[in-house]
């Protein structure tokens, strides 16, 4: 859900030696300081919800584009640590030409109108290591509907759902990815890394905090042996900002 504001930092300032072996700065204790109970504010002004017919038609269109091939899904964020789908195979892989980026303005999901947040998506440029999952064959339409309803909500959201090629050590597959190239989305924005950290250190919504999402993503990427320099730097900055905020409140 993804800067020269991102610039070099977003694509990952060069990885620090053994950085991924160090404990995360963004600890569970720090994340707990951000969590708060927030009611769902509902649909934002200016947005129209997708209808059942929209979901049904787009699922059929995706199946047509896949031409009967096995359905692979590329996961780079919450689909790794909260998959909510069945799979029969998976492997670590890389998407060339895409990078993780907190580039979508958020007022509803892990944020609120009084504490805006950011949603992670895949933006153009660089590369992104993630996990490819193969969905079980059969009932493809229902499986896609389930994913679409989880990952999209508003008119226009389908513009960032696409098939891309991802490559592992032994094979390459065409995989479905959500929130890749969302620059046409009205919520797309490019913020400096420092501004991203400020938002993520404060934002919490009815799905939880932005800091928790970041922490879960980094931890589960580590479990696959994946190190993302951008996210690693960002979690350090968010941890520092949370400590600063709560020290000032003491």
Automatic annotation (TrEMBL):
Record-linked Gene3D superfamilies: Gamma-glutamyl cyclotransferase-like (3.10.490.10)
EC number: 4.3.2.7
Chain segments annotated as transmembrane: none
Keywords assigned: Lyase
InterPro entries: ChaC, GGCT-like, GGCT-like_sf
BP GO annotations: glutathione catabolic process
Top-rank EC class of the record's enzyme: lyase
Region (Disordered): 1-20
Molecular-function GO terms, alphabetical: glutathione specific gamma-glutamylcyclotransferase activity
GO cellular component: cytoplasm
Protein's UniProt name: glutathione-specific gamma-glutamylcyclotransferase
């Amino acid at each position: 859900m993804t800067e020269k504001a991102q610039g070099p930092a977003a694509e990952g300032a060069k990885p620090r030696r053994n950085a991924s072996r160090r404990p995360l700065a963004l600890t569970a204790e720090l994340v707990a300081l951000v969590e708060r109970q927030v009611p769902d504010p509902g649909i934002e002004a200016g947005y129209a919800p997708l209808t059942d017919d929209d979901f049904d038609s787009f699922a059929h269109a995706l199946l047509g584009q896949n031409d009967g091939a096995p359905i692979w899904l590329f996961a780079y964020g919450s689909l790794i640590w909260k998959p909510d789908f069945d799979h029969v195979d998976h492997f670590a892989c890389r998407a060339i030409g895409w990078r993780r980026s907190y580039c979508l303005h958020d007022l509803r999901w892990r944020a609120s109108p009084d504490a805006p947040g950011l949603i992670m998506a895949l933006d153009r440029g660089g590369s992104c290591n993630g996990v490819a999952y193969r969905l079980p064959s059969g009932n493809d339409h229902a499986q896609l509907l389930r994913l679409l309803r989880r990952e999209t909500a508003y008119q226009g959201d389908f513009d960032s759902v696409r098939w891309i090629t991802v490559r592992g050590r032994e094979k390459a597959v065409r995989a479905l990815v959500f929130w890749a190239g969302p620059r046409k989305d009205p919520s797309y924005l490019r913020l400096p890394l420092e501004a991203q950290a400020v938002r993520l250190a404060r934002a919490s919504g009815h799905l939880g905090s932005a800091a928790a999402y970041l922490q879960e993503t980094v931890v589960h990427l580590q479990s696959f042996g994946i190190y993302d320099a951008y996210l690693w730097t960002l979690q350090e900055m968010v941890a520092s900002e949370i400590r600063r905020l709560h020290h000032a409140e003491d």
